Amino acid sequence: MGTAVRAAAGALGGPSGMAAGAAIGAAVVGGVAGGLAGKAAGEAIDPTAEDTYWSKTYATAPYVNKGEEYKKYQSASRYGWESCPKHRDRTFDPVEAQLSNAWNNNSLGSSLTWDKARPATRDAWRRVEHHFPGAAVHFGR
User: Would you call 129 helix, strand, or coil by DSSP?
Assistant: First the structure.
């Protein structure tokens, strides 16, 4: 679309039409490219891979009591890796109040209170935050 539209606009409007056509084409292409980049970043997280990772490693987390099943923390982990892309330019701490409110209003079928879900949510968030260009990633906190 871009080249044909710009050429037609230029043919109709002379030099000023060419400039306008180029600007319009660039805006359209830029908007599409930006949308695709955002979509690609969101798709950078493989929910199956994340769930597999957490199901295999959750028991080593300091907030998990010995003998607790992954199912207890699964929703909280999923909440972390699904919430991070929605706040890609921010770290966990500044959005925690929002996350807490949403969790308390709909805890995704989990029996965990936010105080218990928070560490698993935060861990999952931190694991995926590096997937997003421009993310406010701060490792070692």
Answer: helix
